[in-house]
Each structure stands twice: as C-alpha cells, then as structure tokens.
C-alpha cells in the first residue's frame, strides 16, 4: 500500500466558531453538508453517501475548536481534522482542514473538500 500524503487546506468562513462547530461535530450538522446522512453511536460516526456507508471514529474533539476523525479502515496515523481558527486581530474565522490521500489522489481530494466546504458555506449563509 502506498504512503498517504498529508495535506492542509484553509477556508475563510463567515460564522461564529460556536455555530461552525455544530456543523463539524454533530451528526445533524455534518449531514447538512458533508454527507447525505450521518449517524453516531458514541465515538463511531456512520457517514452515508448515495447508499454507501463509511464509518469513522471520533479521535479527539475540543468544543468550538476542532474535531478529528479516523476512517475505520485507515492506517493508524491517518485522520482528517477540521479545526476552527480565529484571527486574534481581525476576528476572521477560518476552517482549517488536515487530511491524507494517496499521492495520485491529493488534487482530487482537495477538490472534493472545496466542494464540500462550498456546501457548508451555503448552508450557514457564509460567502
């Protein structure tokens, strides 16, 4: 199996950290932009797209700051993290994504995140 490449993306989101966090950390919030449906049982989140399911474990979370998930069938050190960064001076809110993909799939994965975050912005009314 090829080594996964870590990549990072940043998106400016016009939202409060508290509101944004609800869309990152709750099944109902995630199902509005990230997947067709999301269910959770404790630390296990089931993401449903077009009838197929993927299970991720919630590894870490800090309220209004970040969530980190690991797909069930992934290597131990691969995860995806959604972190809320607030600029101390301007108070601008950014969504910082950390994820991993196979080397030949990084660009495609970035485009997928672009589309997903575009949906998120639409849902919360951010430009």
UniProtKB/TrEMBL annotation:
Matches recorded under InterPro entries: START-like_dom_sf, START_2
Organism: Robiginitalea aurantiaca
Protein name in the entry: START-like domain-containing protein
Stretch forming the signal peptide: none
Superkingdom in the source lineage: Bacteria
Residues annotated as domain START-like: 1-125
């Amino acid at each position: 199996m090829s080594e996964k490449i870590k990549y990072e993306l940043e998106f400016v989101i016009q939202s409060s950290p508290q509101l944004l966090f609800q869309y990152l950390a709750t099944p109902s919030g995630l199902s509005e932009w990230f997947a067709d449906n999301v269910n959770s049982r404790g630390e296990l989140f089931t993401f449903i797209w077009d009838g197929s399911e993927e299970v991720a474990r919630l590894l870490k979370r800090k309220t209004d700051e970040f969530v980190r998930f690991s797909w069930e069938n992934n290597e131990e050190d691969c995860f995806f993290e959604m972190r809320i960064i607030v600029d101390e001076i301007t108070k601008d809110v950014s969504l910082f994504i950390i994820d991993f993909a196979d080397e030949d799939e990084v660009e495609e994965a970035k485009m997928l995140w672009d589309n997903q975050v575009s949906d998120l912005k639409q849902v919360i009314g951010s430009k």
